[in-house]
Design brief:
By secondary structure, the chain is of the alpha/beta class. It is about 45% helix and about 15% strand. The protein has a ten-stranded mixed sheet with strand order 3-2-1-4-5-10-9-6-7-8, sandwiched between helices.
Length: about 290
């Protein structure tokens, strides 16, 4: 686990939840929390910086956390996404945490812009917190794409050790090309194994082979493998299993919005009922072995 968790703050209730989650993780894993508030401008007066530091200290530096030495705070100049990338690198933070807001234009500014730019530019996972931090994550759903994105998501989850007793399930959405043509043909000549049934069998086999190749064979028996567009399948699995953390990965080769999961990430940030962790580039450290 990293020495520091980096938390972006903006005095909102969603940022309060992010701080709560970070403190909970820090207490469980023996690391510290570094809060950072960015001004959004490259030039800020000394008086404004002093006022912001006092506001951060008053809102977030809880006496208990301060006494335990868990929390430190910074107020820095500059835009948020670039600042989080730079500060995360300077502190060698392996996890950056922000609050997730829903149903308003700040959500688009904070998540749609900042989160996607951060993940595209950084090799550090980003955790967007939707829920109050009542307990450690217990039910974690990992969306995999059978490529580098899925590999990165599983690697980061193992490496960060955020899950109590590793209660993890996999979700994979697959498509049936020319489905309606097959349905029409099969309606005219019923009998035998349909192309849609074969696609389902192949999808389950592909997921099984992918997980086995990464050393997660035991997860294949409980995986959600369903036909459909990625985010609706993922959202339904989150609700059915009452997941409290969703993990999404990208292979990091190009801008995150160009990846197969790009739109899925945007939808998850905006509307997922649980916390969302986004993993960009391949983590620098190898995947840790773990019991699930």
């Amino acid at each position: 686990m990293p020495d520091h968790l980096l938390v972006g703050t903006d005095f909102s209730k969603s940022a309060d939840r992010a701080v709560q989650r970070a403190v909970l993780i820090a207490r469980q894993r023996g690391c510290r929390v570094r809060l950072v508030h960015f001004t959004g401008h490259l030039s800020t007066s000394a008086a404004q910086l002093t006022s912001l530091r006092q506001a951060v200290d008053s809102r977030y530096m809880h006496p208990v956390a301060r006494l335990e030495g868990l929390v430190e705070a910074d107020v820095l100049e500059g835009p948020v996404a670039q600042g989080l990338v730079k500060r995360g690198s300077e502190l060698d933070c392996r996890l950056v945490i922000i609050g997730a807001r829903q149903g308003s234009w700040p959500s688009e500014w904070l998540l749609g812009g900042v989160a996607e730019r951060f993940v595209a530019a950084s090799d550090r996972p980003l955790l967007a917190v939707h829920q109050d931090a009542v307990h450690a994550y217990r039910r974690v759903l990992v969306a995999i794409d059978l490529g580098e994105g899925g590999r990165n998501a599983l690697a980061a989850l193992s490496r960060l050790d955020l899950v109590a007793n590793w209660r993890v399930r996999i979700v994979h959405a697959y498509d049936v090309p020319f489905k309606y043509i097959f349905e029409l043909a099969e309606s005219m000549a019923p009998g035998g194994v349909s192309a849609i049934q074969r696609a389902r069998t192949y999808a389950h086999a592909d997921v099984s082979a992918f997980l086995s190749g990464l050393g997660f064979a035991e997860l294949k028996t409980t995986a959600f493998v369903e036909e459909g567009n990625a985010y609706p399948v993922i959202h339904n699995a989150v609700q059915r299993w009452s997941a409290d953390l969703l993990v999404l990965g990208s292979d990091g080769k190009t801008s995150i919005v160009d990846q197969i999961l790009g739109s899925t990430i945007s939808e998850a940030l905006a509307s997922c009922p649980c916390d969302v962790m986004i993993v960009g580039r391949q983590p620098s450290a190898p995947m840790a072995s773990a019991e699930h």
